[in-house]
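Progress against Task 2.4 (sequence-to-structure conversion) is shown through the following example record, which the project officer requested during the mid-term review.
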Amino acid sequence: MLFVTAGCWYQVRQINQLNCGRSTSTKLAFVDSGIAAHQIGADARSLRRPSGQLGGLLEGFVLMEIARQLSWSDEEVELFHYRTRDQVEVDAVLENRRGEVVGIEVKAGLKMLAVPVSALWQTAA
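Structure tokens generated for the chain above:
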């Protein structure tokens, strides 16, 4: 999929929401995280700030790497994301043909904080 802004074309990938009987939405991720960083004006200093854009850029990078790996995987697996109306979210959800699900949460912080796993459990419901 191509995205156009200010006369420039960028390749993005559409990631559908895992449909668990809830409303569906899509997430767009830049295929090239370097271009995405340039577009938002990120530099080394701004990425180091706690309020910087590293989290979103890292999430996009991880999603695109997962998508690349799935393109040659022996097992047929689909990539989704998950978010409820209450903003409970799982960054990446992989589901195979047997309905087995793996949730992946991407964190950019130096310290790993306790992450609520309630969203992961909701995807299984």
